[in-house]
Amino acid sequence: MNDTISIQNDKTLGIIITLAGALLMSLDPIFIRFSGVSGFDTAFLFGLFTAISMPIFIQARDPRGLIGALQASGWPVVLSGLLMLGSATGLVLSIKNTSIANTFVILSATPALSALFSWLLLKEVTQRSTWISIIAVMIGIAIVVSGSFESGNWYGDSLAIFSVTCLSINQTLLRKYQNVSRMASVGFGGFLLAIVMFFLATPSSYSMDTWIIMGVMGLFTAPFGRVLSQVATRYITAPEVGMILMIEAVLAPFFGYLFFAEIPEINSIIGGTIILVTIFLYAASSITKVEN
Prior knowledge:
0% strand
């Protein structure tokens, strides 16, 4: 009886932690839009503050310390950081060039694309249900992007596709190299992002408001959200975490409407519905298999 209560409490805690992480990460586009600077400048500040916050988190949470975590991670952390550079750049510039709804609907395809890259790169056996999910997700993305060609947002959608591709490959890499510190990967990606964007940014022109807004995002909401999503896997399964994190695709457009009066186009709604339903069914099926 006590074991059952303990398991139920752990599951409840895991769900609460995941929801908190999803809420914090869904605030990213709000800070990015309110930064008041170009996409390159926003990416520079995002990278800079992430590169500051992640080492602090590692030093505080990882018993190995920063140097020990990097040494244990080895060379894959460099490749993971480069992929984080690509995904973060695509995310920031996408939000600057298309609707928040489109960006997060496309990003919600991560689980299906990760399964595809696991099959291509790791030669993992891919079940029929996974292939069906991948095809359905691709159809959903095509519908979303087709609407953007009419509205002129195709460039931002393309950046979101680039971002989700880098993110999915990175997840596949981390699946193979389990010893890589996730926080070190995020921190190294932020470090690379800050260096690359520094040559395209103009830090001397930033207002105090810009520094404060991006500081709150880069030091607190963005890293805390990502750390919480990792911590949640201690209490519930990875598929469960992935399914709950899908709420980002609902919360982010809601905040976009609340703060910027953005109303998703019909193509985004149709394509997004296909993607979200597909990922929900795929994640639910994965959870059932894990429990069995």
